[in-house]
Structure formats: C-alpha cells, structure tokens
Amino acid sequence: MEREGLKGHLDMLVLAAVAATPSHGYAIVEALKRRSDGALDLSEGTVYPVLHRLERAGMIASEWEDGTTRPRRVYRLTQSGSEALTHKAKSWAEFAAGVGKVLGTRGAAGAAGATA
Amino acid sequence: MSRELIGSRDRNRIVAETLDHLYDAAEAETLDGCEDPVEAERRAVARFGDPAVVARAFFGRSPSYVIAGRWKPWLPVSSATLAVAAGALAAIAAGHHDSFEHRAAAMLGVFALAPAALVAWWAVQWLRGRLVWVESAQDIPSWAGPATRELGSTTLLALPLIALPVAPWVVAAATGSLITASVIVSLVALARMRPRWQGTAPEATIDESQRRRSRLVPLASTVGIYLMVLTPFVDALPVGALLLTASIARMLVEVRGQLDT
Q: Domain ranges in chain A?
C-alpha cells in the first residue's frame, strides 16, 4: 500500500495495533507490518508523531517500563481510545464496503472491456 | 533530530524513544543476517525515515511548526544584549563611565543580566511549550510566538541597562528579585537533573554531556552572582566578566545550533 494512502487511516491502524496488546513503538511498527502481510510498509518514524498525538487526545496512555535491555515507553489503549477505535472501524467498514461496490462494478466492466 | 525538536516539551522523551527504536531495528537487522553492525545501524536509520521530517510531524501544521523548526529571533537579541552588558561591565571596570553614581549598584545592575537571561531562557522554554501544546489552534497567527518571545526576552534583558543610570537602587532591588527567582529556577533544574545523573531515568542516554553543559553554565552564573551579593566588599569584576562570558558563549552556541538547522 502506498504511503500516501495511509494518511488519514494511520490513527485507526495504530489504535488497532495497540488494542491488540500494549506495545512499545518498534513493536507497533512490526505489528502493523506483520498483520498486513507487509502491505503497510511505512517509514517507521512516522508512527511516533501519531502515538504522541493519540496520547494527547487521551486515546492511549504510555509509561516507561523496564525492558530486558533498557527502559521502554509502552503504550496502552484507553477507554476513550477503545471507543474511538470502534467508531473508526465502523466508519472504515462502511467506507470500504461502498468503495468496494463501486470498484467491483467498474472492475468488472474494465475486465470485460479488456477481454473484448 | 534533537535539534529539530527544539521547542517541544516532549523532546527528551521523543529522542529516547527514537534511540530505543533504532536499537531494536539494528538488532533486527543483525538477526536477519546483517553481520556488519555499522551497516545494521545504517539500515535502521534508513527504515526510520528522515529525522527532520519525523520531527516536524510532531508539530503538525500549526504555528508552532513555524516556531519550533526555524530561526529564533530572540537568540541574537539576547546575545547582543549580553554583549552590551559585557561592554558596560568593561566600562565600569575601566572607570570611564561617570554617570554611575553608585558603583556597587551599577555592578549589580549589569550582573542582573545573567540571571535575567536565565529567567528569560526558562520563560521562553515554558512559553514555547505552551505554544506547542496548543498546536491544534489553527487561528494563532504565525508571528505571535516569535514576537512574544522577542518582546519578553528583550524587556527582561534590557530593562536593567535602561534603568541603571536613572535609578541604580531600583535596579539593585530588581536584581535581588531576579537572583531569588534564578536561584529557585536553578534549584528546580538541579532537582530535575539529579535522577539523570544517577542514570535512573531513560533520558540518561540522550546527549547527556551537552545537556549538562547547557544547564551548568547558567547555574554557575546564578551561584556566582549570589555569592557576589553575599560578599559585596570583594572586587568581583573578574568573576563577573567570566560569568558573563560564559553566558554569552552559551547564547552563541545556541545561535550556532539554530544556524545549523
């Protein structure tokens, strides 16, 4: 997926990654890659401004925790973040369904035209 | 990246997280078969992305973006004012300035500039932090931050010089207030530094020597001035000149840092 296409959806994706398990920044980036089968290959640094913005908005909370080798900032989803994720996921599902219907029709026409 | 983040109240935390991320990424590269540690680190940095771009993303599209990543007009103003103070100090030392009726008060007035600069420095940091914090307020004009800082720091730094020939004792009283404020601020700074010295906070890994230098210079200035007030009969001109030079040097370092960006 192209990086431009991620803009506007990154908040939701990061919330979803944090919702799965409290994580530090690198683990969140890796989770996004792994769960998307590599489709979400973004500049890793771009996740941190999103994390900080979400934290300021109260959707996630973070604290330093002792890691195996060094302290790490671990992010957790808050109740507000959980509600926001639910809302965003629902909006995305409706949006994706609508776009899918449009693309499906045009895709079929395009495919038919290509084979004609 | 640290330099790009000047003005962010989360600067230390962001840099610490970035370092942690880069360590992880480099370790992952090594586990994936990259045998050269330097190459692994290079790949980790490349994966992270342009630090300047990432840093600016923390400030969004707000006026604080303009404020945080660009030229700070108050820095040359502060430097120039301190230079003027140094000149005034030299004039007093040479005995060529007849308008100062009370030399002790005049000296205090000049020395007030160093703690004033310190107070101005923290005031600016606080103000900038607030501006960053309200970054979602798109209606704040872009010139508001720099203008406020310039006005504030210029007033703080120039006031003693302006008032000195007119009312040396007022300046002396103001100096006392400034010194008290500076001591309080310095003690707060010292308290904040202590856990990092002990290495208990994650920020301990971040450019510690530079931070310590930048905080110790104004701290030393304040302590020196305080001692000078307690010992009025000691000719403290050499000490004062040294402290002012240190303050000027610090300002110049900051200016150079801004120019580098």
A: 3-108
